[in-house]
Amino acid sequence: MNDAHVDDLHGDVSVDQLQLSEELLGVSGTASQDVAEYAMRLGDDALILAQQLGWWISRAPELEEDLALGNIGLDLLGHARALLHYAGTASDRSEDDLAYWRDESEFRSCWLVEQPNGHFGDTIARQFLFSAYQAELYRELQRSDDASLVAIAGKADREVRYHLDHATQWILRLAGGTDESRERITVSLAEVWPYVDELFTDDALTERLSGTVPQPSALRAGFDATIDAVLAEAELERPAAKPAMAAGREGRHSTQLGYILAEMQWLARRHPGATW
Amino acid sequence: MSTPGETGTETWPLWEVFVRAGRGLSHVHVGSLHAPDETMALRNARDLYTRRNEGLSIWVVPAAAITTSDPDAKGVFFESPAAKNYRHAVYYTRAEGVKHL
Questions:
Q1: What is the pTM for the complete model shown?
Q2: Domains and CATH numbers, chain B
Q3: Which of A168, A170, A201, A216 has the fewest CB neighbours in a 10 Å radius?
Q4: Over the Cα atoms of chain A, what is R_g?
């Protein structure tokens, strides 16, 4: 290996040499109506949570956490793009059509992701539960008979496991930190706990797609094991809060989603078709 | 080191980050960051310094654990090698008859 090459490895990559990888990894073919609806659920979850995490840029406790939450948000945005692109193939709509031109009742996201950012602990609690669910989901989805879903799940799986690790580290630190941090993370977990059950509810769509997608109820045991292990290490009790009447998969949402969509969509709607 | 966050104004401790870009290369200092402890420092380093595939391995070291030479004393500290040509191989002439040198 010559010296110049060593320098390259340690230095910056010049932009004209950079090979950008395919952004919508492995998505090909046209989704059936059912698969499109399913992809829209997953894509909307990822899109709404990405939008929420973006708020933290410049507002996290330290610059380093701005970056960490921003990175997680961008990972999720990548998943959302691929999933919504694929969902759109069934109705000849683009990922942008789906993201910017659907109204609240057309979104299929779960209630957990639309819960307010709150304070840092609230965001961590929400992320912890959601990443633990996604880790189960994307591991199992790689066994789908749908090649596009397998490709998306394969990329998302690695990223989501890092998100779970990040949230886990913070749960442990907030629970083991000061009396105040412990009290606050306990309350944060109790506040988002009611939105867990919705993630693991089977319905007619998932039953029709059995073989193509994992049944949500089958993911619950792995989720519980992940959560219980972390809570045990953090010496926290599993919250006892009753499930909320969440029905995001049918397009019924809490009031928060309206505010999130308003902020996310206004620019695209004010200047339709604009590019920059 | 005091407990991070003990007082409202205190920030997390500083860590120096070293990244190894490839097999056979050494870890190279790339910058620093704040983190509450070594585990989070590694994760923050991953997010801050390996966003574009820069690394295969990361070291984080508490900045406080690094002992540095005094920048104001660099004259005394580093100038000594000047004019000591005998420390360079080229200073020596090759004796006739020595082969393969």
A1: 0.85
A2: 14-91 (3.10.20.520)
A3: A201
A4: 20
